[in-house]
Amino acid sequence: MKQTALSASTLTGDKVRNPDGDRLGHLEEIVIDLEGGRVAYAVLASGGFLGMGDKYFAIPWDLMTVDTDNKEIVADISKETLENAPGFDKDNWPQTNDRSWVVDVYRYYGREPYWDDTEGTEETQIAGEVEESDREETPV
User: Mind listing the domains of the chain with CATH numbers?
Assistant: First the structure.
């Protein structure tokens, strides 16, 4: 049976590769959006040797797939995309109290920020409740 949830600490340190098999680095952290209760982004460490000189990259979580069989993460990005991505170092993490930095990261990877997701109905809608504007008109 496929696992549907894991602790973040189970994943940190796992190798990250792309679908072509290129090793991209390892998962350093998973950053949680405290307001929305969702994963804001994953932090990929890449380019260093034994953890020294690593450059960190924020990657939208929806680009990541956890491969539980191989205990690794597959990121749907090319090596070239990562090499040109905006990054940061372990001593200078970005300030995320302003979402503009996170928006820029999502847009770099061609993604809309998850809090802009307008699919479905209103966020606060109670299950089973239908908004008046969502009802289909039925001819009488």
Answer: 8-134 (2.30.30.240)
Q: What is the C-alpha separation between 31 and 101, in angstroms, rounded?
A: 14
Q: By C-alpha distance, which of 119, 42, 116, 115 is closest to 76?
A: 42
Letter string b/e over residues 25-60, b meaning 16 or more CB atoms within 10 A of that residue's CB: bbbbbbbebeeeeebbbbbbbbeeeeeeebbbbbbb
pLDDT digit string (tens) for 30-48? 999 888 889 999 999 997 6
Of 38 and 50, the structure prediction assigns the larger pLDDT to 38
- Note the pTM of the prediction, 2 decimals: 0.77
